[in-house]
Amino acid sequence: MLKNNMGKWIEEEKEIANLFLEFYRGLFSEDGCERGWIPTRQSWGLVDEENWKKIGGEVSDIEVYSAFFQMGGYKAPRIDGFPAVFYNQNWELVGSLVTNFIKTLWRQPERIGEVNETLVVLNPKVDKPEQVSQFRPIALCNVIYKGLAKILVNRLKPFLDRLISPYQTSFIPRRNIHDNIIVAKKVVHTMNRLQGNKGFMVIKIDLEKAYDRMSWSYIEKVLEEIELDEHVRKVIKGCVNSVKLSLMWNRKKGEELSSSRGLRQGDPLSPYLFVL
């Protein structure tokens, strides 16, 4: 049972499925607002042109091999049923075919859509969810697609600490997310000890469905502003924009959802685009 927008309890399976479909159709659709872009210059270092060109270079056999063997072998498979362990244990048989296809996708980003069909499973965020918004959509991406995304991540990772503000501590190599906890405790401790007439307050902001509302045009603008290699931008655009989403409902593939915004939780590339 779930409540609809009017607060009425819905019990019929088909009606509940439609609730999810309508909610995610709205969530993954651009809101149509025109937003101006304000160019900014970062105070921390940008990456030099020579290193950007290396990131945009041809994919090597060893990069493909490493990307596939970095994946969790038994994570939930995509629509064809093959998890990463299938490729790892049969690499002598399928390795050259997979490697050649990944290289083709790198050279022709417009073809990424061929392997970008994604099943979305809904995990409850609370013990007893009553509304559709209390579920987290987790994307089960194609293993071939994840291989390409892993290569991108491995190339971008070494430069993130030069691109992202030192106040952002998650997903950045050589930074620790636990630093945020220490800073927060220190702030509250300091405020408790302050004396005088002036008051202080702390505001905790929760950006609801922040991944799912991320604007694709905004991602493009950010990648332009950090001066990322043009070909890599095309590959990332292909990864983000060519996605085909289908909700899993009672272990069955549901109706396909069109999307014009959002990043997928479950895509190896998403956390890094998000922090950028």
From TrEMBL:
- Signal peptide extent: none
Q: Where is the Reverse transcriptase domain?
A: 104-276
Which PROSITE patterns does this entry report, sorted A to Z?
RT_POL (PS50878)
Q: What is the lineage of its organism?
A: Eukaryota, Viridiplantae, Streptophyta, Embryophyta, Tracheophyta
Protein's UniProt name:
Reverse transcriptase domain-containing protein
Coiled-coil regions, chain positions:
none
Protein source organism: Acacia crassicarpa
